[in-house]
Amino acid sequence: MYDKKELEQIRKQKEEWEKKCYTPLIDKHPERKKRFENLSNNEIKQLYTPDDISHLEYLKDIGFPGNYPFLRGIHATMHRGKLWTMRQFAGFGSAEETNQRYKYLLSHGETGLSVAFDYPTLYGYDTDHPMSRGEFGKCGVAISSLKDMEILFQGIPIDKITTSMTINGPAAIVWAFYIANAENRGIQKDIIGGTIQNDILKEYIAQKSYIFPPEPSMRLIIDTFEYGSQYVPRWNTISISGYHIREAGSTAVQELAFTVGDGVEYVKWAIKRGLSVDEFAPRLSFFFNAHNDFFEEIAKYRAARRIWAKEMKKLGAKKERSMLMRFHTQTAGCSLTAQQPEINIVRVTMQALAAILGGTQSLHTNSMDEALALPSEKAVRIALRTQQIIAEESGVTDTIDPVGGSYYIEWLTDEMEEQTYRYWERVEKLGGVLAAIEKGFYQREIAAASYKYQKEIDEHKRIIVGVNDYNTDETIDIPLLAMDEKGEERQIKRLNKLKKERNNQKVQRNLEALRTIAEGSSNMMPAILDCVHSYATLGETCQVLRDVFGEYEEQAIY
Amino acid sequence: MVERKIRVLVAKPGLDGHDRGAKIVARALRDAGMEVIYTGLHQTAEMIVEAAIQEDVDVVGLSLLSGAHMTLFVDVAKLLKKNGLDEVLIIGGGIIPVEDVPKLQKEGIAAVFGPGTPTEKIVEYIIKNVKR
Amino acid sequence: MSDIVQNILKGDQRSIARLITLAENNDKIATTAMKDIHPYTGNAQVIGITGVMGSGKSTLICELTRLYRKLGKTVGIIAIDPTSPFSGGALLGDRVRMMELAMDDGVFIRSLGTRGMLGGLTSAVYDVVEILDACGKDVVIVETVGVGQAEVDIIKIADTTLVVIVPGLGDSIQTLKAGVMEIADIYVINKADRPGVEQTIAEVESLVDITCSGKDRKTPVLSTIAKQGKGIDVLLQEIEDHRSYLEKTHLFEKQRRLRYEAELVEIIRKRLMSFIFDEQTCKQRINDLLDRIGEKKTDPYTAAEEILGTILK
Predict the structure, then answer these.
(1) What ipTM was reported for this prediction?
(2) Are B31 and C84 a contacting pair at CB < 8 A?
(3) Fewer CB atoms near the end CB (10 Å): N or C, chain B?
(4) Chains contacting C with at least 3 CB pairs below 8 Å?
């Protein structure tokens, strides 16, 4: 980016600066640490100059927003044109309670919905299944049938607002609930918009909410790609997620490498199915974490965009829409402390800022009390206000990619991209993504990183305010969310009533039809939609697939 | 040459798959010289107690982030008692609201460690409170 | 006879578990109990399973156990994992795959750390086998992680030793070539749905041809896909066949004698070591000797002779 002569000058003068200014100073006053490291344990230098990014070519490697390789952003106007979607992940108790929370959030300026499901729903169990014991509505809303979905969105304009649903193992079925509910309300499939997470690879790698083994799971996912691109074109049929990989203890580089690597894997499977890249790729979306190391996080998002654009081109994408990486961000739940919970507001603010500077398309900001329990209304409001303050008051949205061109940021972006490709080489050597999962590669890498991080905190090599330094004796006074204790009872009653009143013959017929399709190889979505339309429950529909596909067994790696 | 080693069962009851904490604690206890038996995910109370019996552990450590602790931790504590394993020290960790802690203690979960607990604190607690 | 032994003979789970702990800790109560238990042992069939990490041993054991249970046989499983030489602690994770299996009253599973023993076993393993045998388990399976030559000790305990290999893990074949070839009574090529399985089978078979030439029994090479329960019935039949072979050729008694010999040596070793290193007076003496070795007033050989001299007097 600089001419040779100028670079030579810069290099020389830097050496001189080090010799004359820097070294004498640190000889007298040593720096705070011997080695400065970011969260991926990369050494950070005291100063970055044009010399560190001299290998980059502006037009080829950096470019313009809205143009390949999309390093500076996916739109030509970015947040000057449209702010990101403020989308708070929410759900607890019964459908009625969560419906109320959604209405509350929308009335406070939220612009998109994001559904958290409870554990039984995530595993495809109805509320009355024995494994559901104690879990009803605990960390999300319980949705056992189309009936619950109808209640969840009662009075909410799903033709105008988009909904993101964090669901993976049974994603196809829960998506079918959403589609069926829209259809019953007279809204066409091609109008509704939103996202299903539907990312099973990261479940094996990190989050562990899987049901079926990898192969049939991948088939289900590609079924949704295919169905979506034909009938529900405004829906993102996957949100390839690094968030959970990071929450499981990975470094930023691991999050980046494993997530974008998963993305490439999905594309390969879809191509193998015979789908055309430019048909489904525009509906692929991503989901990243925003952790504590401010610049590293920004560099991570920027690198992700560039890698994705390059890889999609290699995979045969022709349309620019197929090459641009749209992503949602959530601030890091695992960075929240139970000690001095109010200071989490500050953490969340910086994490959110990193995501926005990194060019996110939508954002969830965590509530200060989430290391202790489900967030209260007030805590959620403050979290939402945090985004609104950054958007309206800080001025960081006035220009596109304001950190672009920083010697440090550009160097770090490039470095993280490099390290991503090095991880991919290792995965390739193991035989690809599925083989690496089966061999416990990712799980081992993450477990080692997370233990190392904890050790650093335990040994005071890394300071976490309120945890291993700056402690205060305090009684924690966080008002906790009170849940309706009758919710579970009401839900089970509703389930029993439903099973009595629906046309059970039709349900059985539809479930059997699904079984036949599942045993074969055609797209399962139409059969799943028939099941849910006839009010077959989540558990019943999932059980058919469990019978056919079997269940995945954990790789115990630590 | 009597060589007592503290044996700990680290268990994940219920459906919650967040195992970062459980694995970190398991490793830290090993590094503190204990023998740690890890159960893996999705355990019922019955499975946990059966393992505690056969492995003759001194400590059962339960980890849960889904919020179902009032049901599932208590299930395990009751079943351990029912099987006569009164000597076993039960500890828990996860997203546990402060106001639930005394209730859990009343049910026999001796201590609860939330997010951000240094692992050495858990090690110290076990060494100090292990019952045999 | 103590209560604990009586309870074990009745099959009481907690007593079994407790005596295993006492034996692992070299507790005096265990010594007495083990003396009482010996007459009730010798009925269980002992199967050793070894193989590198990731070869699917645990899954294989689960499936084998399910099959034995179907045939009405009770099973004890001893899963041994290495103890960290640095901390003395251990992470015992083999149970993960077996949690559901353990809910069956006819199955008892115990995880052990090697606690400083070489050879992939723990010195308590002999006791644990006898305890599970005495409490009435028809089959006792001992699982160890193969780390090269170290797993050879397992053949001293097991009537039948299985070596598990996975296609594509070139290292495991290399290890076999390096000299652990002799220990297998049966080779199991697990995860046989993986690419390269034919080549692995061929490699192992050619090794078998070399090591078994001139012998009356050729080590069988089986393939299984434990995850799908495939090949387990054939494996079980081979184990039974090996047992009949041992009995027919009177190798069975020889095998058992080998185990008792190993156990006897182990007990003597433990006693001697504890005598030398634990007794206060001896400790003091060793310290003095170490000082003198350092000062070149004596040498390690003379010092050792001196210590042994007093014991053997």
Answers:
(1) 0.94
(2) yes
(3) C
(4) A, B
